[in-house]
# Entry
Amino acid sequence: MIIASRTSLIALAVFALTGAAQAAEVPTLDVSRTCKPLASDVAIDTDRCYRAERAARDQLAKEWLEHPVADRSLCTATAKMGGMASYVTLITCLEMKRDVAKLPPDRGLTTRPSGMPIR
# Structure
């Protein structure tokens, strides 16, 4: 019983460390679908798209660890939605999460949504 518990704890620790290491690095996204036109009659500057994605990834590499793990996880999932991954979407999401976190709690609202109780 003790051996099984130790094995479980070791496996859990290895899993946690592996997840932490992965979370510490900017994820690798396949932006090829993002930088291709959806239809043949749609014009897109593929080179410019790839440059923008590369610039966003370079910026993310500089500031990745400044963002909370929960935000990085949520924004990475958001950036991969729909099968068209994008570093531009990822960095935009992280910037919005950061900016919202800086807002005052009440944000100066003078009205409440109809379903929100008054305290």
